[in-house]
Fold:
Amino acid sequence: MSSGNRFVETLRKLGYPKAINLDGEDFDWLFETTVDRSFLDWFCTSASEQNVLSDDKLQAFNSLEESGKAVLDEKALDEVLKTCQSSHSKTAAMEEVEIEKLEEDLHALQRLKSLHIGRRNKLQVMASGSSHVGLKLKDKEEGEAKALKEILSVLQVTSNKLNHELQTIIEGVQKLILFFTIPEADDESCSHPVFLSQIVLEKYLSSEEQSTAALTLFTKEHFFEALSTFIDGSDEKFELVQLEATKKPSALDDDAHEDKCKEMMRLQLAYICAKHKLIQSKAREKSLRAGLQWAEDNIYATQNTPLDKEENLKARLSSLKKEMLQIQNHIDLINCKSLPGLVKENAQLLNMPIVKGDYDLQIARQNLYASRQDLVCNHLMKQKASFEFLQLAYEIELRKHRHVYRQLDTIIQELKQSGKKLEERLLILSDTTLLSSSKPRNNIDSKDSATHRLYQLLDGDKMQQLFRTYDGLECVAQKLNQNITTLKTQLAVSEQEQSLALSKLDTDLKTLHDFMYPGGNALLLNAPELSSQFQQLDSQLAKLHRVVLEFLGDIKAKRNILASNKLHKMEKQLYVYFFQNEEHLRHVVENVESQIKIN
Structure:
């Protein structure tokens, strides 16, 4: 509160009627003078309603002044008394004694009055000083109360934040506990498990057992009994069974093979007999037809031939009989030697489609067995892959749980360490030597290690001092605050410069992008002015190329004409002579004219 406002507030307390309309700033100049400042301070601190005269006393005083009577002060009264004593010096002895006694009483009363006045003045000075100190303390109390309210509001906000953070941590821990708890079968709240270890695998295992039983029954129905052990055993058993099945044929297979060999031999014999009879019958048929044909031809020839040629026919018949014997011998040779071998070979060739069909049937059966084995193996591979995948998932989840356990263990250790440190700090803060005493101390206590560390941290322990004070700590903190503000301003300036540089760089990049990619996404590798000139140059070069090609074609055509026509060739030479050698042209023309005249 300013001094002028205090003066106006004192006037309001004293009951001055026009004090409401007064402004305290208009009276600040009164307190600038050193002469009247003490009186004004005393007036603002010590004046009260008791010092204000009532209206009756003011009217009596005004009437006394208007009456013209002298208003005497204390000194004037003493002089009057002295005059009174001098005027009454000739009174009686008894009166003098009484007067002396009265004077002594008066002097005693005056001394007592002066003592009381001195005490009053001292008390007024002390009251003014105490009121002044009270006002200062009141202002300081208001400031401290305001600061305390601000600190309490900040502490309340931080407490709310801390409570909110603790509540979120508690909720997170509860959720984490719910994640890691294994739900019961009747618990409906945990219908969606989070981890794989929380899932009940009874249905999966029962389905796998059912599929295994069905697969075992399928193998017993479609394969030999040894293969069913593969379903309940390992892959090695299956491989051994399969190898034994392929290497050791059974007795039934041997009997079937002997039956097949006997049946093939019977078929070969039947085929050989039938083929031999067929060849014989075909040979007889052909021989009969050939004999009939020959008989017809000879009958017709004998009817038309004369009688003198019969002897020739008989000779011919004898030669034909000899040829017939030779052919019969040849036929017997074929029937005895070459024909049986060919028929046997043909019979062996007859076995080929049968054997092929048999082998095709066996291959088809083997393929059927192989497809069924592949089906069984695929199902077993899927089942094994599912089991391995489930095992791998459990191992991965176990590793994750171990990792989470290690992290939680480290967090617990850190929390324990922070709790111990907090207990140590609270123990240090609860030390009686660090509590604020009634007498404020400027020097920092040697036992207050926290304040000394704070001072060393702020000052950097640049100056080794014997005694460290709170004022020095405050100065160091203010200096550090000033450094922080300067650094913040420098950082803001640097950020502004950086933002300006970045904006300038962005504009330059934008202009460069617009220049490099004009009107689209196509990259411009040259300037538009140069591109237009290059286009013009390309068009001119193309035009020049066409002109040159036309010129070369014209030259080639003219050369062909000159090569085919001597007259044009001679005209060309004359033109050449006309432009290059006029004397030679004149000589040639004269020779031609002379030849024409001669002719």
